[in-house]
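Before the break, one more example. Copy the sequence into your notebook; we will annotate it together after we see the structure.
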Amino acid sequence: MSKFKIEKWIVRTGCAAVVVAFAMAGPVAHAADSKTPEAMVSDDVNDPIEPLNRFFFQFNELIQTWFLRPAGIFYRSFLPPGMRDSVGNFLGNLSEPVTLANDLLQGEGGRAQATVQRFVINSTYGIGGLFDRSTEMGVDRHKEDFGQTMAVWGTGEGFYLVLPVFGPSNPRDAVGKLVVDPFFDPLGYFLDKDLAMTRTVLKGVDEYEGVMDELEQIKKTSIDYYAALRSMYRQKRVSEIANGEAVDLPPIPDLSIELETPGGGRQPAANPEITRPREAVSGISADGTQRVAGR
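Here is what the structure looks like once it is written out:
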């Protein structure tokens, strides 16, 4: 095993350890004041470690302000829309094996077949994935990750968690995306450190460029920007877990930057905690509503 592969394994194991520590410490710390009004509000939004989450949220805002947004603006001005679409298509095509693995683990034979069709069509007729010919042929893209797979298997979301750099998450999704999904990515076993970092940075900038205007609009129209993104992330994940079934709200952008690998919901109860712009939101469940395999 190369030194780079060992370093990646150590990082993933460290992420898992941190998430597990949060999962064990959060409920204990929250129990001490569980009868206070503040605690009851925290229960409603599933955010018992909100002060720590807000700290990392502000840290991530600095990264976006000083790096991601300038990089996104440069990327947008440097590449015309068609070329940006091709970059996104190419990176998305590379992520299809991760989606396929989770389709199979969830018992989604039909969706797995669609994923294989997309990969074959776009890798050939789409010239290595630069063009999304499969969508033109009626085979739409969907994302799956191991966080969704664990939800299908009955694992609850746990509490809301803001990860440094990676953004909105929860223990289940953090372990799924950061620890397990990379093992489903065959390209990750062959890329050297420089190429892997280039892919990571390009994916992050490409994804952020696609949502930075929406995020700015949400920031302007929300009373509490942190609370808005928290609510929208949880709604989005419930929608993704349920494959978008019975959701009559418009979709929201992907709010977490997937630096390693990629990633629709039951109708939520109304959530008064945020002021939603037109671009918001999809499905919510306080307990991380799951679907069952073979839906």
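The chain has a mean pLDDT of 78. The first helix runs from residue 3 to 31. Try to locate both features in your own notes.
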